[in-house]
Input
Amino acid sequence: MDISLEKASDTNASLKITLTPADYKPEVDKKLKDYGRKVQLKGFRPGHVPASLVQKMYGKSILVDEINSMLNRTVSQYIRENKLQVVGDPVPNREEADAIDWDNQTDFAFSYTLGLASEFDIDFSDLPSVTQYDIQAGDAEVDSTIVDLQKRFHTHTHGEEVGGDDTIYGELKQVNVAEGETGFSAKTALPLDKMAEESKGQFVGKKKSDVVTFVLDQAFSDERARANATGVKPEEAAALTGEYTFEIDDITRHEPAELNQELFDKVLGAGAVENEEQFRTKVAEVIRSNYSRESAQLLRLDIEKTLLDNTPILLPDEFLKNWLLEVNEGKFTPEQIEEQYDDFTKSVKLQLIKNKIAEKADIKVEYDEVLDATRAMVREQFGFASSEDEEMNKTIDRIARNYLVDEKNNGQNYTSTFNRVYDDKVMDYAKTQLTIVSQDVTVDEFKALVENR
Output
């Protein structure tokens, strides 16, 4: 076998492979013998079909299959051993392949066009610092969070006069019912916070025993909201239109919970805090904790952007655009490929950079790491806390292993989890090499930063 790489530029190359009988014939002959033992042909006992007949019947297809298999292995191995930064897939020269005379040729020549990324390196010492934002919960954030908590743990009271967010209970009756028909009526509850503003004004200020005439489908234009207000199924609510009367029997409203020990215990657990000052301190900690994941995600995005902006990499643009058009088989037009090309190249470059970091730092992912990540995912998905319960841990382990070997998606579960663990390890290493500068920001400042990203 002869294999050679000819580089036309930093980003384009041609890989040429020449095969002689010494390369493929031993394996082809072995497969022909196997066929000879297994093939069943009328007039011959099993295993006694003449070799010449087996050759005539199956020789060409076996030869083609073996050479194609050999080419795939050879190309992949050459790229791996020579650490070529290949982007896209190697594209075979189809004209050369179509011109092969499989019946008479014994030597075969093939060529592949390769798209390459230009050579680059990562020197963390040359990279600028990256900011990690520490969200500080000020009085305004703590106050608004406490107000939300008071609303969430509200109490019910009965009012004498209807307010804009009250729920009113009473009897709903259809007006203008055709002669001989029974109009719709029901004892029900109307939530004013779900009612259209123009209709809500007809109820606000009314008292018990008052009767209000209104247009039901204007008050609740959404059929699902109308179904909730009338107690019927959504498909039946569509027919409930026109004027209705509602006689008010009762008025209830949500009163925010008082800022007392009962609320503290409901929110944080019994005895976690003993006064309002401690409660505010804990709420501030919870706010910071809730934003910590978003802060970590923003740090990750900024690290990726820093790596991209400071690592010049050339790509074979025309090759990649043609390759994208071909592999997507008519799903995209050249114009659509052009429109999305910048985003595609960013993801390609970022993956190349991460692979380079992993290579230099000798970062590898073992099966046990993938399994541990899957176990953690199962715990989070099903709400299982970390436990010493042996039976529960066995159940989690079984679910995780079954997920990773699920044959329905051709191993995609394992691949996606592997890639996530690999990506996390690379980014964790990058954090140790970069200069990370902490900066305190308010919640509103952090929200603005996220929106700008």
Notes: The chain has a mean pLDDT of 92.
